[in-house]
Structure formats: structure tokens, C-alpha cells
Amino acid sequence: MEKFYCQCKKHKLRVTPQRVAIYQALRQDRTHPTADAVYQNVKAECSNISLDTVNRTLIKFAEIGFIDTVACSGQGKKYDPNNKLHHHLKCIKCGKIIDFYNKKYDKLNVPENIEEGFTVISKKVVLTGICKKCLSKKDKK
């Protein structure tokens, strides 16, 4: 929580009960939740919170680099509280996203022609495929 308070102070963001609840819900959910999933987890604790507040807060957290967004076609934005350098496995059937770590991927070189006209500030590898759970469903059919 100390990191949360420091980040809020650094970015002149008031620490409100809603923001604390959103942050805690996000830290406890390692599934890369959508704003709606975070809202569902938070509304029991903060009954007066709205989905719009959750959305705006998550967007603000992402803008200040406190969390990352993970683009998922057809499923809306998902949020990732893991700030350590890591990569993702994404299931094309169920949309599940799994973090993984790989030092070789961390050190990928950016092609020279890209570096000439573009400044790369972050590198993440996303591998797409079918997770074990979806594969086992397919095998049972």
C-alpha cells in the first residue's frame, strides 16, 4: 500500500476510499480483469461506487504508469497491476491472459528501421494460442 500512496502523492492524486478499494481489488485479481470485473469486486465494499468511477480511475492509474492495459480484441480493455517486466500468453478461445517471464524476450533487439522513426519505450511479447482448459474441452467433444 505504501507504493500506492507514494504514487498518488507523486501524481497529485487524492487518496480516496474508492481509489484504495479499486487498487486493492486489482492487486488481488491476477486474471487481468476488465473494468466491469473490478467494479463487481469493489461494489460490495463501496456500495456507492459507479462503473464510471472505476473506469476513470483505471484509466488514470494506467496514464500515470501505475498499471498497464492489455488490449484484447472483442473483450474490451483488461488491466494488469504487475509492473515487473513480463510477457503474456493469451488464449484465443476463452480470452484468459497468463503472465510469464523470459530473459531472452526481455532482451529482444528492436530492428534498426523501426528505431530510426520510432522511440521504443517498452517491449512485451504476447503469444496467442489455446490454454490447457480449452484444449481439454476440445478433446472431450
Can you describe what's shown?
With 141 residues, the protein is of the alpha+beta class. The chain folds into two domains: 2-78, Arc Repressor Mutant, subunit A (Orthogonal Bundle); 84-140, Dna Ligase, domain 1 (2-Layer Sandwich), CATH 3.30.1490. Helix content is 43%, strand content 13%. It is built from seven helices and five strands, in the order ααααββββααβα. The protein has helices at 2-10, 17-28, 35-42, 51-63, 103-106, 112-117, 132-140, and strands at residues 68-70, 78-80, 87-91, 97-100, 126-129. The strands form two sheets. The chain has a three-stranded mixed beta sheet with strand order 4-3-5, with no helix packed on it. Strands 1-2 form a two-stranded antiparallel ribbon. A hairpin with a 7-residue loop joins strand 1 (68-70) and strand 2. The radius of gyration is 17 Å and the shape is flat. The termini are far apart. The model has no long low-confidence stretch (mean pLDDT 90).
